[in-house]
Amino acid sequence: MNGSQDSPPRFVWLGLVTFLLMLPETLPVPVLRPLVLERFGVSDALTTLFMSANQLGALLAAPGLAFWVQRSGRRRWPALLALCGDAVLMQALAHPHDYATFLLLRTLEGALHIAALTLVMSLVTDAAGPHRGRALGALGAGLTLGVALGAAIGGRIGRDQPLLVLHVASGVLVVAAALAALVLPADSPAGARPRLRELLAAVHDTPGLRAPLLLAFVDRFTVGFFTAGFPLLMAGVHGAPREQVGMLLAAFLLPFALLSYPAGRLAERWARQPMVFWGSLVYGLGVLCVGSVPASALWLLMPLLGIASAVMFVPTLLWLLERAPALPRTTIMAAFHGAGALGFLLGPLCCGALVHLASDPGSGYVLAFAVAGLAEILGAWLCVGLPLRRRPG
Questions:
Q1: Are 351 and 275 in contact (CB under 8 A)?
Q2: What is the CATH number of the domain that holds 351?
Q3: I want to staple 173 with a disulfide (CB 3.0 to 4.6 A). Which of 45, 87, 278, 293 is the partner?
């Protein structure tokens, strides 16, 4: 595609790639109960493993991916192959399996998905130059818009045929691969090729990475409660239909998507840490209330969560990038997604365990979302608030 990497049309096409890449990930969320719990006859706690298995694959893939890319210098073709493989595995999930095989396929699907996402984001970040904030804002907008519409669309198309969401997800990933082949920038020239030990040492010896990576972990930890626990909360406690679950998730994620690009542009000019702190604080307070407020109040609470998420997401990523200017972009992106994948892996597991510990599901979800919200508030204070207070002047 013609045009410079920093031109608005190019941003639109690259944002569309991430939109198509992320749309399939939340198509199954509103129909999690019939797709997993009823299909395999498992408990609420075991149902949450569907989301955790995806992130386990991502967590296992991220370090090896960063090392391989840094050694080979290739990102474009591996990204396209990962998208195609993701489409095949998403289709495989729709066919009969026992639950263990189903989770294994989901784990492999998560590995290929995070590979594609990391490679796309690192390619675009390298090529964006001084307009990195708006480039990441466009990618973030596409990413969150895909997540938002996936949740809304999944509730509708899976209302009568839950397996249909997996067939649609596979088709969307094929389209994403075709578009990516047209618009992804070329690989950057290969530089030095360090050993795995050198890469790990570089990340370990860069203390500035720890705070933004910890915050990325906590953010995705709380998101794990939404993807696994929120649909079960709405269906089991509030008796909400699947379409309403999808629309509520969209009410959270659409403001997040629409404001990601403006937040990225603001973060090019404003101090990033205060944006991250206040966004995280408001988000944490909102998450704390999700399990205890009536269903009608969620129509106000969910958009507030989306606005707060937009304020902190791209600034967190830019903050991470500026903390390690000497490290390869793929390594930083893999570290970011690896920390997020670990949070997303533990979030559903923690949510399921807390619900199981309570005397009834209603009080279990109150406890679960209170823990998630407090984790976000504590993370914001430790990673950003306390260092800002200690800063002289």
A1: no
A2: 1.20.1250.20
A3: 87
- Cβ contacts of 146 within 8 Å, gap of 6 or more: 18, 19, 20, 21, 22, 23, 25, 26, 257
pTM: 0.72
Residue 3 lies in a domain: no
Q: 8, 110, 106: which is closest to 57 by C-alpha?
A: 110
129: left (phi over 0), alpha (psi -120 to 50) or beta: left
Q: Which residue is it, tokens 């997040």?
A: 256
> Which residue range(s) make up the domain with 134?
8-185+196-390
Q: How far apart are CA 245 and CA 241, in angstroms?
A: 7
- Written as six digits, the tokens of 91 are 């289709």
In one letter, which amino acid is 132? Answer: R
What whole-number distance in Å separates Cα of residue 334 and Cα of residue 109?
A: 17
Number of domains in the chain: 1
Residues of the chain below pLDDT 50: 1-7, 393
Angstrom distance (rounded) from CA 223 to CA 236: 19
* Mean pLDDT score of the chain: 82
